[in-house]
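To illustrate the input format used throughout this study, we show a single complete record. The first block contains the structure-token representation of the backbone; no residue identities are included at this stage. The design step must infer an amino acid for every position from geometry alone.
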């Protein structure tokens, strides 16, 4: 059973220490040709922490990590945790304007990145006052952070409930990106909460976790921390590539995977999938966006694993709901609240009245994983966290068995002719078409209806389909008012770094195209 008192004083670095003590020679990380056991990982972390300390790094300093998935990210992350620093997560794909905004907002004193980012950094004046550390030396050697000599380190001094560990910037899919303040307590608790769900099948010191989602995203960061907590082997892939993922599965036989729907869809649509055995997985977890029902069924057929649909958000560290292990399971549901979490559905007008079972409302949650607040945004914090309740902005309903279902984002809801349409609900139907690989439904302003629903579709490789054929297929499968008014076929959809489809980007694009 989850006992928050047992973990309330545990820092992220101390989780690493515990695994080192229990499983010193267990393989901790595989990054291509680099393999470190738990003792060597801790020595490397401490050595880099001592370098930072000698350079003047102090508790509370903010350090931007603009790194791809790599052992360098892990070493930098835990070194910052050792010194009581605050990791500012920076997407390596960010360009000048995005970097300028983040530097202005987070104001990091330190910045760690690869030399391939140097040209980009030179264009940002703010970097003149930031101490930049590259992961490679002038000769291109990538071993810069992988030293073992530990010099002086200060005493470990962390207040888990108060000290911020990470500034996790929201995806910016619904507006200006905000820095979510996550404490050591938030992160450690959420890892243990999620761990309780899978505890019956996940064996400490024996698992192999596949790390394919970008570590600068909260979901992947939690997966990495969970690997450390359970003394698992963390298998790193710098960038998602379906063929390379399948090769890693063949080589290392991972038991646990966390990915986005687009990643799972890419694997299932791989032309050589039948050549690979995916039966090594005990559990596959989907995050960042709803996993279409048809994809869940196909994934279960291919892997034999338990597919964990779930729900979470950066403001809730990552996870708040998960499919329960064993017992009743409902495909299409995000499951039930994870241990230590309370949730309810409230009316969207006042945000106070709980709505009846089966009725849509705003999902709100309470638990130890709820963020400390938004960085330098007290007004927005007060709007989002009220009396300890996190207002998610997501529309959901609960059934009679206490299972939750996400209908869509409050801001994504389309009102066409006075009727509410939830894009996620429509997409569930669109994914049922045998030729559809990916789909995104969204609303744009309309003079007559108020808003009208459109859809952009990506077809499976080698397939063809006309708009009329597709719209005819929709007839009888979904209420007429929910059928998209127009469909466009594309080769790809705009996405975030973790593969979440950027619905708002399509909205803005179409508003410009339609001169709205």
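Output of the design step:
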């Amino acid at each position: 059973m989850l006992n928050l008192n047992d973990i309330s004083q545990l820092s992220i670095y101390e989780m690493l220490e515990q695994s080192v003590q229990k499983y010193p020679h267990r393989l901790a990380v595989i990054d291509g040709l680099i393999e470190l056991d738990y003792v060597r990982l801790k020595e490397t972390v401490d050595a880099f922490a001592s370098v930072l300390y000698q350079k003047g790094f102090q508790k509370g300093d903010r350090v931007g990590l603009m790194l791809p998935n790599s052992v360098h990210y892990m070493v930098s992350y835990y070194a910052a945790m050792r010194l009581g620093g605050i990791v500012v997560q920076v997407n390596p794909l960010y360009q000048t304007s995005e970097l300028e905004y983040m530097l202005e907002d987070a104001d990091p004193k330190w910045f760690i990145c690869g030399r391939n980012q140097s040209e980009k950094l030179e264009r940002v004046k703010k970097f003149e006052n930031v101490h930049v550390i590259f992961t490679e030396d002038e000769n291109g050697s990538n071993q810069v952070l992988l030293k073992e000599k530990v010099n002086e380190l200060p005493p470990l001094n962390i207040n888990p409930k108060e000290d911020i560990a990470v500034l996790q910037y929201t995806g910016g899919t619904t507006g200006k990106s905000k820095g979510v303040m996550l404490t050591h307590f938030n992160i450690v608790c959420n890892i243990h909460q999620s761990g309780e769900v899978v505890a019956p099948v996940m064996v400490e010191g024996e698992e192999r976790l596949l790390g394919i989602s970008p570590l600068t995203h909260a979901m992947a960061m939690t997966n990495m921390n969970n690997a450390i907590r359970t003394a698992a082997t963390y298998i790193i892939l710098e960038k998602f590539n379906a063929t390379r993922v399948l090769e890693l599965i063949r080589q290392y036989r991972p038991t646990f995977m966390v990915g986005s729907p687009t990643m799972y869809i890419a694997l299932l649509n791989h032309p050589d999938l039948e050549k690979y055995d995916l039966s090594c997985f005990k559990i596959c977890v989907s995050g960042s966006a709803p996993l279409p029902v048809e994809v869940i069924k196909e994934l279960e057929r291919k892997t034999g694993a338990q597919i964990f649909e779930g729900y979470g958000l950066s403001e809730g560290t990552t996870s708040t709901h998960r499919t329960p292990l064993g017992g009743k399971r409902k495909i299409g549901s995000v499951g039930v609240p994870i241990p230590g979490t309370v949730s309810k559905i409230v009316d969207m007008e006042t945000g106070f009245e709980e709505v009846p079972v089966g009725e849509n409302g705003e999902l709100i949650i309470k638990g130890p994983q709820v963020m400390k607040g938004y960085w330098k945004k007290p007004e927005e914090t007060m709007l989002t966290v009220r009396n300890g309740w996190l207002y998610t902005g997501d529309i959901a309903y609960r059934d009679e068995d206490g299972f939750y279902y996400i209908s869509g984002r409050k801001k994504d809801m389309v009102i066409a002719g006075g009727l509410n349409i939830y894009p996620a609900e429509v997409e569930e139907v669109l994914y049922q078409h045998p030729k559809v690989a990916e789909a995104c439904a969204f609303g744009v302003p309309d003079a007559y209806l108020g808003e009208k629903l459109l859809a952009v579709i990506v077809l499976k490789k080698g397939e063809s389909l006309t708009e009329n054929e597709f719209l005819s297929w929709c007839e009888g499968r979904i209420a007429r008012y929910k059928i998209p008014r127009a469909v466009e076929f594309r080769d790809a959809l705009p996405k975030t770094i973790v593969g979440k489809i950027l619905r708002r980007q399509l909205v803005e694009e179409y508003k410009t195209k339609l001169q709205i």
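Structural context for interpreting the output: The mean pLDDT is 90. The radius of gyration is 23 Å.
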